[in-house]
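# step 3/5: fold
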Amino acid sequence: MTVVKIAKVVLLLVLLLHSSLLSAEEKSPKYTPEIVPKKMSVQTKKARFYYLLLPPIKKVYSELEQQYIATQKDLNNSTNSESIVKLKETYDVETDAELLQALKPHPMSITIAQAAMESAWGTSRFFREAYNTFGMWNNDQNASRIAAGESRSKKHTVWLSKYETLEDSVRAYYKTLAKGKTYIAFREVKMNSDDVYELVKKLDKYSERGEDYTKEIASMIRYNKLTKYDQ
């Protein structure tokens, strides 16, 4: 075998090795929800969080935004009345205005901040074991859920929902804020203002900490410049 042929074989082997390494990297995710690297820096912890949560949050937001726009068009044109009726049943609303309030997704900056807060930047036990990103409680005995590590009383255990994927968790969170009387004011402000800091104030019922919780969410949005995801 000549020197030229040997060189070609070596080059081919190098290219094959490089290709296989790239393929392995594509198959193996950089981070997973279940595994929290030890001794992470703050920078690494946040990088892991964004790596895991930004894709599902963006996907769900996009889906909801498209549904909102399509429904708005149907209402204006008096079309797809059966779908409108089903949506009103799903979100437990009566008027067209209430339906649009329910369907319009709130800014991603708020979603990201609440996800970071409730999951301790993607490191909490509920995040790792149940994909529960937003601290969503679940009192349904027949549902998939996970028990909290401590009880609020000897007779009552706090249960949190268990999800199949992070995307399911994000979707459930958006639906929770879209339904029920608890977040009526939140939904009303959402339709009339793009100011995330005014909107966050209406999430005081999300946590028992009330106003302190909303202030911390606002501070997290501001410090991490999360409004860039709303532009």
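# step 4/5: annotate
The chain has a mean pLDDT of 88.
# step 5/5: archive (pending)
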